[in-house]
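Bumping with the actual sequence this time:
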Amino acid sequence: MILLLGGTAEARSLAERLEAAGANFTSSLAGRVAQPRLPVGETRIGGFGGVEGLRAHIRENKVTAVIDATHPFAEGMSANALAACRADGVPLLRLERPGWGDAPDAAGWHWVDDHAGAAATVARLGQRPFLTVGRQPIGEFTGPLADRACLVRVVDPPDQQFPEAWSLLLSRGPYALDSELALMREHGADVLVTKDSGGTWTWPKMAAAAELGVSVVVVRRPRAPRHLEITGDVDAAADWAVRGWAAGR
């Protein structure tokens, strides 16, 4: 049995390849999005209960290999997967889409280490920020940017109250350049705030910012653990998984 920790477009693509190969696998989603896009094949939704819960799941389901294809900023799940697999000697592969650090405009962006740093940087740069960092870290911005006309785009409504000057947009990608240009012009955005999520689904906002001359603040990815096998290629991950599954049958 292959355990695929998913929730990303890459994980869904990998699930399709595993199903086509006839591999025995289960996709696991964290359940943080109310209506997630489901992959093909068997799917479980919800946490494991930390490292020990994940270890128990691996043993009970005779998991022979784990692929961590969670979001690049899903630090908790990735850390638990690494600890559980190392403890029980289960092969682990990290499937992670490349970041945007090599993009032509990347050197001109304002790179920060965390969301608190992003909020402080935005407070210096603009009056009408466009926040696209997801629902969970929004609390880091409400204090420093309480008096700014922020446009916040998230998939599901945040739990906390917003400052009076803020606007909420519930939306899910992928996005197109034309619509991103229109949205940023309508809001009068003068700074875009994002995470280095990588991929193509949300890249149009970066292209729109470049075209409009909007400042960009980017939260760096967490540093990958040493000695962790990582690939950014879905086909390579599928080959790795199928070889491991075939050997463990």
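The tokens above came from a reply further down the thread. The longest strand covers residues 25-29.
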